Amino acid sequence: MDNEDSITKLLRLKRYEQPPEEYFQNFLTEFQTRQRSEVIHRPLMHIAWDRFSSLFVMPPIPKLAMASSVLAAVFTTAFILNWSDDVEPSSLTLTSSGAVQLDSKNQTSPSKVGSTVHYVLPASPVSYASARSF
Amino acid sequence: MEMPETPDEELVRRTQAGDAQAFDALILRFSPRLYGLVYHMTSSHEDTNDLLQDIFSKAYRSIKGFQGKSSFYTWMHTIAVNMTINFLKKRNRRKTMSLDDADNGILNNQDFIEATSSGDPSREANLSELQKRLNESMLKLSHDHRAVVTMFDIQGMPHAEISKVLKISEGTVRSRLFYAHRQLQNYLQEFIDK
């Protein structure tokens, strides 16, 4: 243990290896000069990157508010997707008279419940033959 | 009457708000201590000067991310130790370190002479040899051991503070110190016996 103390005492002598006082004032001046020159000689890539990343800087939002907004956004999206699935026109049928009928049980609008939608189609089928053919 | 010193936290807050002069005050406050830390790990004034510039540049760039979870003092020490160890790893690959870089001014330092003066003329005559051997011994330690010895033995930091800076347990700090001291005892035996 005595040896340990002697080692510590010897090493503490190294505390005196300090530069003179004025060194630290000069150090500050050198630091400021270097900093300015860094700003002037900054690579273009760094400047471009800084500008790009500043586009994504978000204002400080409390974590709870952030989490609840994300949850609200997820629920809204899920609701919208569900709702649009319900009105898919999967139940359109073509009647023999040439009318297209919408199955009433799939209608979502209460005002249209029970009504039949008729789409008027030409009685004779359209000919794809050229009108100029003989 | 002396004006009370502005607390570190206040200077940090002002720097974060864009006040460059507040950071200048932090540099003047911390550079002597950080100089000692880096110098005792590198044993070169030139390298210390360059490294210290880089350390403060890095601190200035990252200060907005400093949240005050640790003290600014600990935060600065962590940056300094990590950057110095990285530098030493690179320098080891170059192996160009010369002990000529070691401080010679210390031999004219009155405090040092008084501290080493024990009334034994042979010891006083060996100041130069002692300084050389101290620096050589430090350079023989691993980077991790050198960092712990510098902070504990030379700078007088407590174990708890060192463990925060190095992000290791206090037990690891003590164990590194134990092995480093054992190694140093071998190198410096002749000065301990005297």
CATH architecture of the largest domain in chain B: Orthogonal Bundle
| Major β-sheet profile of chain A | 2 strands, antiparallel
Order of helices and strands of chain A: HHHHEE
Oligomer: heterodimer
Q: Which structural class should the secondary elements of chain A be placed in?
A: mainly alpha
Q: What percent of residues of chain B are in strands? A: under 5%
Task: Write up what this structure looks like.
Chain A is 49% helix and 4% strand. Chain A is mainly alpha-helical. Chain A has a domain at 91-121. Chain A has a two-stranded antiparallel ribbon with strand order 1-2. In chain A, strand 1 and strand 2 form a beta hairpin. Chain A is elongated, with a radius of gyration of 40 Å. The termini of chain A are far apart. The model of chain A has no long low-confidence stretch (mean pLDDT 72). With 194 residues, chain B is mostly helical. Chain B folds into 2 domains: 1-98, Rna Polymerase Sigma Factor, Chain: A (Orthogonal Bundle), CATH 1.10.1740.10; 109-194, Winged helix-like DNA-binding domain superfamily/Winged helix DNA-binding domain (Arc Repressor Mutant, subunit A). Chain B is 73% helix and 0% strand. The model of chain B is unreliable at 96-102 (pLDDT under 50). Chain A binds chain B through residues 3-4, 6-8, 10-20, 24-25, 27-28, 30-32, 34-35, 38, and chain B through 24, 27-28, 31-32, 35-36, 39-40, 45, 49, 52-53, 56-57, 60, 103, 105-106, 109, 111-112, 115-116, 130-131, 134, 138, 149, 153-156, 181, 184-185, 188, 191-192.
Could you write a compact summary of the structure shown?
The complex is a heterodimer of chains A (134) and B (194). Chain A is mostly helical and 134 residues long.
Give the topology, please.
The complex is a heterodimer of chains A (134) and B (194).
Chain A: H1 2-12, H2 21-40, H3 44-54, H4 63-86, E1 92-94, E2 100-102
Antiparallel strand pairs in A: 1-2
Chain B: H1 8-16, H2 20-42, H3 45-62, H4 72-94, H5 110-116, H6 121-125, H7 127-140, H8 143-154, H9 159-166, H10 170-187, H11 189-193
Helix pairs in contact in B: 1-2, 2-3, 2-4, 2-8, 3-4, 4-9, 8-10, 9-10
